[in-house]
């Protein structure tokens, strides 16, 4: 299969928690918005939850709106594309659980 030099390289990142979101932002910064690279972030939620501060929300010291950011705004500001997917529960495999007494 011959590679077409006009086709952009594509990077697909699954999940937009800390790892996925910061990987996408880092790649975009490193690659300098090259036209030859498309970075797409796929997630089932449309927001980023800053979990390290979740305990402050539970304690009432901080409002939830301070630790939740729409993924689309974070991604579009960086020049990336974002896709929100929904996976039916019937397709999600749960890990087998074992219990020891």
Describe this structure in words.
This protein is globular. It has 3 helices and 5 strands. The longest helix has 14 residues, at 18-31. The strands form 2 sheets. The chain has a 3-stranded parallel β-sheet, with helices on one face. It has a two-stranded antiparallel sheet with strand order 3-4. Helices cover 26% and strands 23% of the residues. By secondary structure, it is an alpha/beta fold.
List the helices and strands and how they pair.
Elements: E1 9-14, H1 18-31, E2 37-43, E3 47-49, H2 54-58, E4 68-70, H3 71-77, E5 81-84
Parallel strand pairs: 1-2, 2-5
Antiparallel strand pairs: 3-4
Q: Give Rg in angstroms.
A: 18 Å
Kindly report how far apart the N and C termini lie. 56 Å
Mean pLDDT: 76
Q: Could you list the spans in which at least 5 consecutive residues all have pLDDT below 50?
A: none
- Give the % helix: 25-40%
Q: Mind summarizing the main beta sheet?
A: 3 strands, parallel
Q: Approximately how much beta-strand content do the residues carry?
A: 15-25%
What is the overall number of helices? 3
Shape: globular
Structural class: alpha/beta
Strand element count: 5
Q: Write the element-wise H/E pattern from the N-terminal end onward.
A: EHEEHEHE
Strand order of the largest sheet: 1-2-5
Entry summary:
It contains 3 helices and 5 strands. It has 101 residues and is an alpha/beta fold. The longest helix has 14 residues, at 18-31.
Q: Which features does this protein show?
A:
5 strands
């Amino acid at each position: 299969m011959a590679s077409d030099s006009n086709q952009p390289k594509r990077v697909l990142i699954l999940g937009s928690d800390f790892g996925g979101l910061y990987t996408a932002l880092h790649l975009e910064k490193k690659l300098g918005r090259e036209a030859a690279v498309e970075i797409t972030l796929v997630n089932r939620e449309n927001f980023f939850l800053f979990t390290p501060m979740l305990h402050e929300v539970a304690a009432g010291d901080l409002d939830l709106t301070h630790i939740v950011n729409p993924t689309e705004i974070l991604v579009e500001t960086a020049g990336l594309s974002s896709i929100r997917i929904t996976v039916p529960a019937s397709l999600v495999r749960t890990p087998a659980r074992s219990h020891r007494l």
